[in-house]
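Supplementary Methods S3. Complex input for the fe (ii) ion-bound model.
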Amino acid sequence: MSGIKLNTKVLVVDDSIPVRTVIKRLLSKIGLTNIVEAENGKIGFEKLTTADPPFDMVLLDNQMPVMDGETFVKKVRENDVLAKVVLYGLKTETDQIKLDQSANLGIDGFISKIFHQRSTTEDNLLRLELELTNCLLDHFRSNRDVWSDGISAGFESPKKIRQYNDFLTNYMPIEPNIIIPGLKIPLSIYTEKDTIVKMILEADAIVPEQEIFYQGDDIKKAGHLFVHLDDREKYKNFLKELSSGKIKGSSEKMDRVRAAVIKENSKMVTKDFMENPRSGETVKEAKNVVSEMIDNILNNPSSFYGLMKINTYDYYTYLHSINVCTLSIGLAVSLGLKKEELDPLAIGALMHDMGKSRIPSSIINKPGRLSEEEFTTIKNHVNWGHELLESHKDLPPESFIPLKQHHEKLSGKGYPNGIEGDQLHLFGRIASIVDIYDALTTERSYKKAFKPFEAVSILLKTPEDFDEDIFNNFVTMLGKQIRDE
Ligand SMILES: [Fe+2]
Ligand SMILES: [Fe+2]
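Predicted complex, serialized as structure tokens:
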């Protein structure tokens, strides 16, 4: 199949309005907005043959009143219409092959497994969204103009890469919500663009009343604020002050500030833990943070979605660890796990990538492909992490499972041990899904992040790697979040 371009003109033929709406929404999410709808094959065919400019692609339901999909495609081919036709709504793959081969219709793509029962429940619509994305991703992958997983301009140069690494090592992203107008901030605040850092508020300055941090062009675009790591202790003290009474009032805004302070505290604790994994003190603090997160999610499920993605900044192991921890708790709760089982899973998820502290950031954050040798180094993080933590006798044995198994796959194609099937513990099954998902949806300075539904579609490419039930639960959980946005 050849690729499609962003100005692709698409005709969506389906008798169900909800389905057409989902398809339109999905297409526009990936930049396709030139879309025309038709409620059956007959109307669709009229629109197709009279269009100027012509349509590039037709997304077509099979079962429709007046004229069904199969008849529609026959007419399209008889009339030498060049548009690509992607058909959905057939029950099985055998049906697809039969239809395509016997009638020699030249159908360009099928989307399957959607409407086993013809229904338009939320869950089915989400499935349609995913299937359709899969199909479209295939088109996009074959057209580098539209779908490029390449690297942003400039990131081929060693100087730029050094600059990027310096930036990642020296600065830490912070939540903009804690920068309250009128408050005196004891440390400087920075912003960044293309790895060039700019100070936007000097230490000990009062935050201006007009919320420049939300309106300024740089911030609004990037939404990212940073502190220098030399100011780390000052920042911790500032957070302490904030949580001990400086934030007054009960407005919605203050609730956001409070939530942001909790996030920032857990981030600092996780960062300390990553840097000092052998210290008994940091493990204790990490365990406290984790049980706070669990309580938070159990007592107030809606808070989960607030905690879920701390941000989509560049990759920092401590942020990724918090994300994997939060998502693992959410997924485990949706699978019906009890509080006692959540504790070891959550602390395990938080420390799953601990071994990365031994890998130079120039490898972890390398733009582009890793060499064979670099990849071997990366793979070692699993065993290194275990070595770093095994001396902690107060960590329950199950809490090591997410660490040991998060890169294993049900198919046996994972690492470090290539275990498969039943050898994969529930915690490993959870962590392996959540881990890749978070990595895919994290932005990098040199690379765009995948959207949640794109990330799920990528995982769906190798269904044999993941536990189907857990995966379905995960998709439903994300679906709720996307809908709540
Ligand atoms: Fe990992
Ligand atoms: Fe990870």
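The longest helix spans residues 252-275. Residues 1-5, 113-119, 139-149, 214-222 have pLDDT under 50 and may be disordered.
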